[in-house]
## 1
Amino acid sequence: MNSFLKEYSKEKILEDFHSSYIKDILVETVNLTRATLKESLEFRTKLENDIYSMNTKLIIDLSQCEFIDSSFLGVLVLIKKKVGKLKGVLKVIKPVNFSESMMQYTMTLQLFDTYPDLESAINSF
């Protein structure tokens, strides 16, 4: 594992959403096992603020999520559109139980550039 990824994992904070930068890429980590309507409004506001601050290289790390509901998926779709309007890039790290997730069931994941881990997502830029 690259040294910057080791440092990244050391600095992870146990909050619902954690922001960090690796080079010029903003990584938004979702520290939830269940991402639902309750959390989606806060996450949407956080991501919109990121975009308004001209962070147009985004990675959303869903690797800790075991369940993602349709409202949370809707936020991801909305943010992808907003980033796209600014000629930005949004990449998503797959949920831990991807094959059983709502993203697989609804085929929503096909809308995103997805990666199995953070290192792969970063290297794709």
## 2
Amino acid sequence: MSAPGWRPAFRSALIRPEYRVVIEAFFDDSGKESQGDHRFVCIAGYLAHDQVWWGFQQRWRHLLMRHGIPAVHMKDWEGTRREKKWALNYGHRVLSEFIGAIKDSQLIGFGVAVDADVWRKLSSQRRKSFGDAQEFCFQRLLRRIIDRLDQAQERDAIELVFNRDYQFARPRLRLLEHINKRDPRMASRVAAISFGDARHYYLLQAADILAWQTRKHLVNQSGTQAETEGWRELFSALPDRDLDYEGELWDGEMVEAKFSELEADQKKMREMEKLRAS
């Protein structure tokens, strides 16, 4: 007979997954396929074990307390710097401390972006197979994350955490619905989805930095000019290669080289699903 209060060691794994993916859906702010003036659709996030996230949050919280700020939000960072009356170099140094917390915690970053101009030029039939550009980005992001887990022979499911934004809550749920229809095998690896307030959920602040880092790469690769001097100054504070990051940019060259392979894989997967159903 088991001792009073005994609990099986695997009980916590049954309650919640051990791996968490914190996502900043950057297309919310700067890339909507339906709007011709938005060049990129982009989504970025971090993968880490739950214990790693816990340690990271303690350090992030300490840095916020140390510098007397409530949150790190890249869109408002220049305003924060001015409000605190920090010199430009000092503001960069503070930002580097937060980036250092991400790097030292060994968070694994992922990002996927689509050039919306290239996507709109694909035939409607080819686009229909993958949904819109946002759905395609989300599907590719999950694919990269699950591939990384498979490489490490980690079979645990993951939890997805999005920034709490009521305007986009339903579209994000639809992204999962899209994945479930297009790739049930991949969808089975998603155990839970939740929404957090970035002011209190520090992991989302880290994802916000990654989204900006991804944006930086897109701006540099496309030759697009940054919008303001403050934007350019902020980019100069972000490191190019210091973060553990892997990503995809689906521009014209990438679509021409790889899109047909994805279509063939998707066709094969649909055929396999039909066989299982019959």
